[in-house]
Design brief:
The structure is a single chain. The protein is α+β, with helices and mostly antiparallel strands and 234 residues long. The protein has two domains: 82 residues, Pseudouridine synthase (2-Layer Sandwich), CATH 3.30.2350; 133 residues, Pseudouridine synthase, CATH 3.30.2350. The protein is 23% helix and 32% strand. The strands form three sheets. Strands 1, 2, 3, 4, 7, 10, 11, 12 and 13 form a nine-stranded mixed β-sheet that branches. Strand 10 and strand 11 form a beta hairpin.
Length: 234
C-alpha cells in the first residue's frame, strides 16, 4: 500500500497516483481529490490537475498533481503508457467500445492464436492510426464526440503514433487480452478496430485498464477510498 509522507504540503505541490474507478471521468477524480483536500486541510482553494485523460469506461492509473506540481503535468503527459486491453472479436460498435451498441457481427472461427501472433507485429513501432470519432480530439473547435453523438460523419485524419510492444496475454475465442506499451496519443479503441480488420473480422473493446505511466505503476496507486482514509491521519 502506498504512503503519503506526513510532511506533504499539497499546496506547495504533490503527485498522487490514483486507480480510477469505472464510470468516473478523469475530471471527476480531480474534483474529488480537490474537495477531499480542501475539506481536510481547510484550503480556500487548491489547484489540482491530471496528467492524461482516461475514458469513463476505462480504469486504472491516473497521475494527479496538486499546487505547484501542476506545472509539471506536461512532462508526465509525454511518458509512455501501459494498458491491459480486453477485446471481443466478431462484433463492432460505432465507438469501438461499450459506449454504443453492437452494429455488425463477423465470423471468428478462423481466428487462431497463431494468426493473432502473426499479425500483432504490424501494429508495433511508428504506425498511422485514425482516431475514433467518439473521442475528445478537437475538430473545428469542438470535440469529435460532439459530432458523433449527433450522427454527423466527420473525416478523421490519421496520426502517427508509437507502439513499443504488444503482448498476447490470453485468447479464449472470442475474447482476446493484450498488454500494450505505447506512446502519447495512441487510441487503444482504434487499435482494437484495426486489429479486428486485420483478422478479417471485427472487434470492440470491452475493458481497458491503464497499468503504468512511465515508471509509475498501478500497484503504487491509491483507490479513492484508500486516499480518503489515509489523509484523515495526516
Amino acid at each position: 500500500m502506498p504512503e503519503i509522507l506526513k510532511q506533504t504540503d499539497f499546496m506547495k505541490g504533490s503527485v498522487i497516483l490514483i486507480d480510477k474507478p469505472l464510470d468516473w471521468s478523469s475530471f471527476d477524480v480531480v474534483n474529488k481529490i480537490r474537495i477531499l483536500l480542501q475539506k481536510r486541510f481547510r484550503y480556500k482553494w487548491l489547484k489540482v490537475g491530471h496528467a492524461g485523460t482516461l475514458d469513463p469506461l476505462a480504469t486504472g492509473l491516473i497521475i494527479i498533481c496538486t499546487g505547484n506540481a501542476t506545472k509539471d503535468i506536461t512532462k508526465y503527459l509525454n511518458l509512455e503508457k501501459e494498458y491491459i486491453a480486453t477485446i471481443c472479436l466478431g462484433k463492432t460498435t460505432p465507438s469501438y467500445d461499450l459506449e454504443t451498441e453492437v452494429n455488425q457481427t463477423y465470423p471468428t472461427e478462423h481466428i487462431t492464436r497463431e494468426r493473432i501472433l502473426k499479425i500483432l507485429p504490424q501494429f508495433t513501432g511508428k504506425i498511422k492510426q485514425v482516431p475514433p470519432l467518439f473521442s475528445a480530439k478537437r475538430l473545428k473547435g469542438k470535440r469529435a464526440y460532439d459530432f458523433a453523438r449527433r450522427g454527423e460523419n466527420i473525416e478523421m485524419k490519421p496520426n502517427v503514433v508509437y507502439i513499443r510492444e504488444i503482448e498476447l496475454l490470453e485468447y479464449d475465442r472470442p475474447v482476446l487480452i493484450l498488454r500494450i506499451r505505447c506512446g502519447k496519443g495512441t487510441y487503444i479503441r482504434a487499435l482494437t478496430r484495426d486489429l479486428g480488420e486485420a483478422l478479417s473480422s471485427g472487434a470492440h473493446l470491452i475493458a481497458l485498464k491503464r497499468t503504468a505511466i512511465g515508471g509509475f505503476k498501478i500497484s503504487d496507486a491509491f483507490t479513492l477510498k484508500n486516499f480518503e482514509e489515509k489523509i484523515k491521519y495526516l
